Amino acid sequence: MSARPNTAVDTTVSTPLAVLGRDVTVPLVTGGEVTYAALDYAASAPALQRVWDDVAAYAPYYGSVHRGAGYLSQLSTDLFENSRRTVAEFLDCREGDQLVFTRSTTDSLNLLAAALPAGCQVFVFETEHHASLLPWRDAEVTYLNAPRTPAEAVTTLERALADRDPYGPALVCVTGASNVTGELWPVRELAAAAHAHGARIVLDAAQLAPHHPLSVRELDVDWVAFSGHKLYAPFGSGVLAGRADWLQDADPYLAGGGASRKVARRADGGVEVEWHSTAARHEAGSPNVIGVYAIASACKALTEAGFDELVAREQRLVGVVRAGLAEVPEVKVLSLFGDDAPRVGVISFVVEGWNSSHFAAALSAEYGIGVRDGLFCAHPLVRTLLGSDPQDPGECGAPESEPGERSLNAIRVSFGAGTPEEHVERFVRAVKELVAQGARWNYRTEDGRCVPDTASA
Ligand SMILES: Cc1ncc(COP(=O)(O)O)c(C=O)c1O
């Protein structure tokens, strides 16, 4: 763990993409108001203005998808299916890949878990977000120890795969960018290792897709999953895209209308169902056309803005934050792969002498900065990085000690294409002030959250 960045900081940060909420002001406990600095993109990013405008322009034309004869139903169905093509293009999917719209990354990975062939072995690093760690309950799962370098990740996987039954199906699940450290994982190399051992691989791109262009074809992953709400499209949709065969062969994720092609009563009194073999097989019920259109709109917006330029801009913000934190000896940045690892705008840290929940509460109440504190639904990873007991399950996001006590949690700051430079500068200044001068207000724990004590300053 170290906070020393090795890159010079470029202070010229160009204009952010327009997002909703950029003019929202929030009250400070110390008096007055300030523009809210949303620095919790890794949880949910604000909606792009473009996404909001596209959704608003479509809303009067909203109609049922795949079922109505009317004009607006036809229009909505076209919009839904065109959105599928737009997102597939954004992900650079292969010919023959299927793209299923889901509710979220969690939903996508649970869908894939439900579609595993019989006897499938699953390999997953203990460092994963719970959405990648937990859905494989019905499979034989091998949990791989946290690697300390990207190369070690590959050798750890290779070793585990070498021991497996080479004739049975196997799946590796790996994250593209950590929701704790922001570090990029060696996805292409892990995919090559998986394939060399006859296994398949699914990429959890919840934190990668919003921060980095990604190509299913180039990374050679079998599936990719991500969420709309982390990609500036918070309307309740997600994506699972990739190989069609396991999805086509599996029982529908949800049984119902839309997934079924033909349903008839049998002579014995039962019901005979012919299920769709396309993505519709796993999209039973009325689809969330607004959520799906919002994702497609976000994909277009990022592409048209120049995703590479957005990445370069975000990297400059990463440099500003890491350089600022490095100037505070009490701050320890959490890292698995070290300072040189490429990373996205997600940085977790602890502050010596501070409970993380207390620190995060002070950032909010005294500076109008929204970050997250806790274990970030990646308990084993955060506990490994903090050096605390990895067996202790803890609560997701709950503070574990009173303000002032040593923290077993961390603080996470995260940002992206909509983040103004002022927000990260204010964050760095706030960290320095809090560490040097302490909080200006008293805090107490209420319902598991650290909150300003309104009775006392
Ligand atoms: C790496 C990673 N995977 C999966 C998820 C789950 O995403 P969702 O809550 O949208 O299902 C998250 C959410 O924070 C995440 O960071």
UniProtKB/TrEMBL annotation:
<dbReference type="Pfam" id="PF00266">
    <property type="entry name" value="Aminotran_5"/>
</dbReference>
<protein>
    <submittedName>
        <fullName>Aminotransferase</fullName>
    </submittedName>
</protein>
<dbReference type="InterPro" id="IPR015422">
    <property type="entry name" value="PyrdxlP-dep_Trfase_small"/>
</dbReference>
<dbReference type="InterPro" id="IPR015421">
    <property type="entry name" value="PyrdxlP-dep_Trfase_major"/>
</dbReference>
<dbReference type="GO" id="GO:0008483">
    <property type="term" value="F:transaminase activity"/>
</dbReference>
<feature type="domain" description="Aminotransferase class V">
    <location>
        <begin position="39"/>
        <end position="427"/>
    </location>
</feature>
<keyword id="KW-0663">Pyridoxal phosphate</keyword>
<keyword id="KW-0032">Aminotransferase</keyword>
<dbReference type="InterPro" id="IPR000192">
    <property type="entry name" value="Aminotrans_V_dom"/>
</dbReference>
<keyword id="KW-0808">Transferase</keyword>
<dbReference type="InterPro" id="IPR015424">
    <property type="entry name" value="PyrdxlP-dep_Trfase"/>
</dbReference>
